[in-house]
Amino acid sequence: xxxxxxxxxxxxxxxxxxxxxxxxxxxxxxxxxxxxxxxxxxxxxxxxxxxxxxxxxxxxxxxxxxxxxxxxxxxxxxxxxxxxxxxxxxxxxxxxxxxxxxxxxxxxxxxxxxxxxxxxxxxxxxxxxxxxxxxxxxxxxxxxxxxxxxxxxxxxxxxxxxxxxxxxxxxxxxxxxxxxxxxxxxxxxxxxxxxxxxxxxxxxxxxxxxxxxxxxxxxxxxxxxxxxxxxxxxxxxxxxxxxxxxxxxxxxxxxxxxxxxxxxxxxxxxxxxxxxxxxxxxxxxxxxxxxxxxxxxxxxxxxxxxxxxxxxxxxxxxx
Length: 319
Ligand SMILES: Nc1ncnc2c1ncn2[C@@H]1O[C@H](COP(=O)(O)OP(=O)(O)OP(=O)(O)O)[C@@H](O)[C@H]1O
What we know:
Layout: H1 3-14, E1 23-25, E2 28-34, H2 40-54, E3 62-68, E4 75-80, H3 88-101, E5 106-110, H4 118-121, E6 130-132, E7 135-137, E8 147-149, H5 164-175, E9 184-188, H6 195-204, E10 208-213, H7 217-232, E11 237-248, E12 255-256, H8 263-271, E13 275-281, H9 283-290, H10 301-318
Parallel strand pairs: 2-3, 4-9, 4-10, 5-8, 5-9, 10-11, 11-13
Antiparallel strand pairs: 1-2, 6-7, 11-12
Pfam family, one: ParA
GO molecular function, one term: ATP-dependent FeS chaperone activity
Protein name: Iron-sulfur cluster carrier protein
């Protein structure tokens, strides 16, 4: 191996495969470095290490590093439930906020064409997306998360009359928008397991799915249907989240379990999937969500349970 070849081999480890093969001409080494997703400090540290190593290669007097941000393909996480009203949209919004805090670049698509709620949850109801080269440009939200929902595109209630294929096309436009540097797209799925859900999963191939259920037996039976939709389409299930578990009385502090307890964890174990955590039924969660201020964005106790779920999802994403 020449000195240049051995430097090129070392470069792979040094940059985790982000550098092109180095070329040397007239004493100048040139290479391209993909810095997409790196912090400024990490980018500078990698570039310094490359320079230092390159100048040790005989004949190299100067180093030119062209920094690029190669677009990584976006990973979709579908958040789904077998039935409506179990808190799927609430979990999607807070999961996005919590993953962003963990350093991921996250976006949200509200795929609930018939009853979109993300614009309210993320306080972006007054935003209207622009289009460029026939692709939508996501709107920003106060939590710093780019997002798209039918609520940004149509008058409230208008989408209700759409038939399956029309709804499916509209959803594809949201998912195929210009998401820029976004790495993780949280897709808040419509409740249930109908045609729109199936064609979304087949067409956009989520990297994984998070299933939300309340602890009631009936909700869990429905959750199993959602799980089977993903299994049939070979989408890995990241795990199950139990929402609205254990109610803490704001007056006396006593914990009661209006929908039972432990059902989702037992169901996850039975189905051989990860249990991602339990979100309590808390007035604070509802009030903040309705006010467009996702609990996970603050430091209050109501956000903690969402952070615990996000930690597990982050571990799955990194594994
Ligand atoms: N853990 C919780 N504690 C208190 N209220 C909650 C909790 N989770 C959700 N809610 C409230 O329950 C209602 C339904 O939640 P959400 O809209 O997230 O459900 P969903 O499953 O997305 O419903 P759908 O998709 O059928 O519209 C909302 O008012 C929300 O604020």
